[in-house]
Structures are given as C-alpha cells and as structure tokens.
Amino acid sequence: MRDPGQIYEGCYASLAQCLLTVSEYCPELPANTPPLHRIRNLVQDLISPEAAKNVPPVDSLSISQAITILSTSEDLLATLVEAGPSGPINQEMRQALTETIADLKYRLGAALRQNQAHRVRGLYVIIDPEVTGGRDPLDIAKAAVNGGAKMLQLRDKLRDKGEILPLAIELQKLCLAADADLIINDHADLAAAVGSAGLHVGQTDLPVDQARRVLAPHQIIGRSNHEMEELTESQGMGSDHLAFGAVYATGTKGVGRPPQGTDRLRHAKELTQLPLVAIGGINAENVAPVVQAGADAVCVAAAVGLAPEPEAAAARLVAAIRDAGGRV
Q1: How much of the chain is in helix, strand and coil states, percent to nearest 5?
Q2: Can you list the domains of the chain with their CATH numbers?
Q3: CA within 20 to 30 Å of 27's CA: 68, 160, 264, 297, which one?
Q4: Of 23, 73, 196, 224, which is the active-site residue?
Q5: 14 tagged catalytic
Q6: How confident is the model at residue 1 (pLDDT cuts 50, 70, 90)?
Q7: Which among 209, 240, 235, 210 is positioned nearest to 222, based on CA atoms?
Q8: Is 49 exposed, middle or buried (0-12, 13-18, 19+ CB in 10 A)?
Q9: Rounded distance, CA 81 to CA 12, Å?
C-alpha cells in the first residue's frame, strides 16, 4: 500500500506546478492584478527556484484552461488539508491559497463571460409551456431556432424541476446544434445540471452572487429590471446582461406598471455598458424603434409562441431586427 506521505508530497508538487503555470501564463488579466500578484508570491513559498526551472513552459493558456487548472488546484489543496496540521500546508498558507485562488477564478470567469457578451444579440425567444397555444414547447423552440433565434429561455413557473429537466435537456441539445444559447429562468441548479449558456433571474429571485456559486464560470447571468435604479444595482451585482421592460403593453406577464416606451429604453442603454435585452409587447411591426433605441437583443414570448406559424413569425422578427440595424 502506498505511503500516504508520498501521496501528499505528490499533491504538493502538483499544486505548486499548477499555480506556477497560472502565475506565469495567466491570460487576459494585467500582470499587476492583485490575486495574480499574490499567487506569484505564494508560489515562491511553495516551490524552490531550482524546482521552478524544471516546470515545462506552455505555448499559451486560454481562460478556460486557466480556470480548469485553478479548479484542480482547489482539489489538490483540499487533499493536502486532510493531512492535518502536520501536513505540508499550514493553516495560514491554506487560507491565503483558498482566498487567492477563488478571487483569481472569479476574475477569470468574469473575463470569460465578457468575451461572450457579443452572443447576446438578435431574437431571444421565451419557451413557456403556458405560451404555446397548446403545442409542444420543443416544437416551438425548433421553429424559433429555424426562424433565426439565437437565444432561447426556458421559463416554466408551474412544474417542479424534475418535470422541467427533460425539456431543458432537449433544448440544450437543440441550441448546441444550432449555435444558439439556452438560458434557464430562475433555477440555477437546473442551469448547472444541463450546462446551459446561462441563467435568468428576477428582482426577487436568487441573488447574482449566490447563483454564481452554483454555476460554472462560463455561464452568464441576466437579470430583469423595470427601473433605472435597478439597472445600476444589477450591474453592480455582477450581472452579465440586463433585461429591461416592459417596453410596450403586454398581456403575457402582468407587470403592474405602465409600459416603459423606447425613450426610457434608450436612457437605460446609456446607463450601462452591458448587453441590454428589451422585452415586453414586442413584435415584427414595432421592433424597429426598439433596436434603434439600443437594444442588443429582443426578447419575445407570445409573438412566436402563440403565432399560427412560429417559424415564420421568428423569421419576420429576425428580418425586422436586421433591417433596423440590429445584430442577428
């Protein structure tokens, strides 16, 4: 049976090599980024200069690869902690490494999601079993994607998550095949389970920072907003994109307030650098002013879900967004 001491020594060496690799080749972040600077200092305490010279160089490191290496480092550190006070990592070093790795992972995740911001664009269709005219939600989703939708959101307010899961899995397969993005409404655990592009939360749903604890670093979070103050708050929380509405009167989801209109939508766009999703009462006939007001994506439910021909309705919306100068 292998000596546990040798196992811990191997974990220690692997941990030092992982952190040295990230400290030397971390992408995207400036060299003086605080957690990156701390990692470099901590590595000097973990590994001798002679051992550092023997670590093989890498040609390049992507953000995703750096995050994976940091996740591996967390697992190695957890194993070393099991050795107790007599192990190679003391309590002070453990705390410093735990906090610094988590901070660096968060910053790299934010950079990764920012690089994906361009994917919030064009037609964004909510797939809601209550807004299909009695048809299969998956058929509505296929029609939406065939019509040119680049984002889908699964919103099911009535069923339990175990009942929602099969549809979520099929929608994720559909989106992957079509180079579209699936967003799950409300349920962070469901988004994590199916590996969707992200999650959408409302003002009273799971806070953004808590949702991050459940999601993978690449998964984006959008948040609903109805007031200018909410936009500022959502951006400060670390949302990756913002939804604003209802732009026009809508009967799909009661909001209990007057429509925002395109002037307020334009003002909302001026308040944030994040991608902005316009929602509420939008159709092919009134979408042009929405795009011209600065919306990066246009979110609809009934305009596609209740249309007699959902694919044709989606195609008309995509064409109208394109004609108004929007990205599709």
Answers
A1: 50, 10, 35
A2: 4-114 (no CATH), 119-323 (3.20.20.70)
A3: 297
A4: 224
A5: no
A6: very low
A7: 240
A8: exposed
A9: 11
pTM for the predicted model, two decimal places: 0.91
pLDDT in tens, 285-314: 999 999 999 999 999 999 999 999 999 999
**Active site (annotated) includes residue 155:** yes
Mean pLDDT on 118-132: 98
Catalytic residue among 105, 150, 155, 316: 155
- Kind and range of the H or E element at 45? helix 34-46
Which pLDDT score, from 0 to 100, does residue 52 have?
A: 60
Report in angstroms the alpha-carbon separations of 59 from 164, 216, 321. Answer: 43, 26, 42
**265: Cβ–Cβ under 8 A, 6 or more apart, which residues?**
244, 247, 276, 278, 290, 293, 294, 295
Q: Which residue out of 40, 253, 264, 266 is catalytically annotated? A: 253
Whether 224 is catalytic is yes
Other Cβ atoms less than 10 A from the Cβ of 95: the count is 11
Question: Which residues, in sequence order, are CB contacts of 162 under 8 Å at separation 6+?
Answer: none
Q: How far is CA 37 from the centre of its chain?
A: 26
Q: Which two tokens stand for residue 91?
A: 């309590």
26 alpha-carbon distance from chain centroid: 21
